[in-house]
């Protein structure tokens, strides 16, 4: 079996590792960084922990804090214009997946003058203007270690997947102490996102021994810590377990792929502005059930590792417990159906053919153990509409 392994050149992992930022910048020859973050990081003062580390080391920096949740091409264009003017030799993506993805996309877009949509898959976005050091503040996307960035095409209401070495950070600092302030809803959504990354990588047609090892470790950590991180936001052990799990899940899917959940999730995010992890959660039980028979042993192993099934359960029982367990988890985490979220039935129904086309065009559904056609995707969207309401 042939496969490729990609990962940042270094990862600093653990409580307090943010203090090592100046040393990391020195290792990669970054003397004048642009810090990319969002208004919440500024408002709650979290970004000051990053900026203080820079100030204490005498490093000159500027801050771009106009990032929006689920980044748009217009914001990326504004950020890339700053990079084209020059004066910086590196980027620090500080925040959840949105600021990290913004930093990556800015660096890719600043290599030329083409619009962002020219870089979407199947284009190989291998070039970037400046190196990115990623510092996540959510335990979720794994963007700090992935070769992906996701940007919304505002003219077409499409969440574009951009993939290539240009999107891979050179280094990441994974410091769970940055996550204590994440609200319950976001802790739940980002946590389910990271579990989805690990599970989809594990059942992917492009899984390999490296991604399997990361996915197994991630599912064990997330299975053990997700509920507690939601219920007890100050629980350091739960936050640490979730943060490591999310990063390992990122390594898993960056080296295998995501699959049908993510393929169908991006159109929900683009058309209805549902947070990424939440749209994944809405889909996860039904899409898992759709694929169960095609990869029963894999789903069963995932169920045992994550604690949804017992070691003694045979594959059929364990796989079934996974689908049931994911639905129960949604109920426990108060995940609304699209209907309960407030999406009107006629609006949902009218968008389904386009959403199914966009899901298929992203390429992710082709990695699923059971590959659906357009009509099957429409049927799945219909099935989840009122589920868990
Ligand atoms: N590049 C990848 O490989 C990849 C993978 C999955 C998802 N994504 C993308 O990442 C984005 C979602 O990222 P996300 O789920 O991390 O959410 P996010 O970055 O949009 O953050 C969600 C909210 O939580 C706030 N927040 C973040 N950290 C916080 C903290 N420590 N304390 C308090 N509030 C905090 C943010 O300000 C924001 O309001 C989506 O655009 C999604 O498509 C990218
Ligand atoms: Fe995701």
Order of helices and strands: EHEHHEHEHEEEEHHHHHHHHHH
Radius of gyration: 20 Å
| Overall geometric form | globular
Strand order of the largest sheet: 1-8-5-4-2-3
Number of domains: 2
Q: Main beta sheet: strand number and arrangement?
A: 6 strands, parallel
Helix content: 40-55%
> What ligands does this structure carry?
nicotinamide-adenine-dinucleotide, fe (ii) ion
Sheet/helix structural class: alpha/beta
Average residue-wise pLDDT: 97
What oligomeric state do the depicted chains represent?
A: single chain
Beta-strand percent range? 5-15%
Number of strands: 8
| Low-confidence runs of at least 5 consecutive residues | none
Let me know the CATH homologous superfamily of the largest domain.
Answer: Dehydroquinate synthase-like - alpha domain
- Class of the largest domain, according to the CATH hierarchy? Mainly Alpha
Describe, in plain words, how this protein is organized in 3D:
By secondary structure, this protein is of the alpha/beta class. The chain folds into two domains: 10-179, Rossmann fold; 184-385, Dehydroquinate synthase-like - alpha domain (Dehydroquinate synthase-like, alpha domain, Up-down Bundle), CATH 1.20.1090. 52% of the residues lie in helices and 10% in strands. It has helices spanning 21-27, 39-43, 46-56, 73-85, 97-109, 184-203, 209-231, 236-255, 260-272, 276-291, 296-306, 315-332, 338-341, 345-361, 374-385; strands at residues 10-13, 33-36, 62-64, 90-95, 132-136, 148-153, 158-163, 171-174. Strands 1-8-5-4-2-3 form a six-stranded parallel sheet, with helices on both faces. The protein is globular. It starts with 9 loop residues before the first strand and ends with a helix. Fe (ii) ion (FE2) binds next to α6.
